[in-house]
Amino acid sequence: MFSRIDHVGIACRDLDATAEFYRRTYGFEVAHEEVNEQQGVREAMLRVNGTDDGHATCLQLLEPTRPDSPVAKFLDSRGEGVHHIAFGTGDVAAAAAAVGHTGVRVLDAEPRQGTSGSRIVFLHPKDCGGVLTELVEAAVSAVPGGAGAHQSVKNV
Ligand code: MC0
Predict the structure, then answer these.
(1) Is residue 81 part of a domain?
(2) Which of 51, 80, 124, 125 has a 20 to 30 Å separation from 70 between CA atoms?
(3) Is residue 92 part of a domain?
(4) Which of these is catalytic: 33, 39, 55, 60?
(5) pTM value?
(6) Which domain holds residue 20?
(7) What is the pLDDT of residues 15-28, one digit of tens each?
């Protein structure tokens, strides 16, 4: 059903300072930046490695753009840190349906827009051992070979 860990989402209060930490400490560069108004986040993708399915595994830094957004609520209650894990799939609707049939609550009736034109669905953390879980289908236009959905393009 899944072919990669697409990304690990990390909630932060200051995206630029957090990106600089990852650059300085581990050498990870920002491959893509974007504001997702629907989700209420400014985000940066830091590519870690290419994956066998032609895409990539990334760290996703998330800074809230409004106080009522999920990431702002998370920061208020838990502080900075790992916010969610995302699994990559070729068919997010089918994957969500299959997981939903196991009894896990699927939070999005229809896939929403994610990073770089991807389609995403969230699963309830209370049904996933306390881990907010995202399913990701990369955009059709994603370039094979690892740059994938997380090319060196800044859309801010
Ligand atoms: C909340 N909870 C979490 C959590 N967020 N547990 C683990 N990880 C998280 N990230 C827990 C709370 O601690 C609480 O547990 C319970 O879930 C209810 O939380 P709440 O604060 O009362 O908030 P709700 O119920 O209004 O909403 C929680 C829910 C929501 C997960 C349903 O945040 C949601 O729909 N998230 C999906 C969308 C999202 O997170 N978007 C931001 C990333 P207790 O024990 O206190 O009851 S967007 C993104 O990542 C996109 C751009 C992309 O990848 O492309």
Answers:
(1) yes
(2) 51
(3) yes
(4) 60
(5) 0.94
(6) 4-150
(7) 999 999 999 999 99
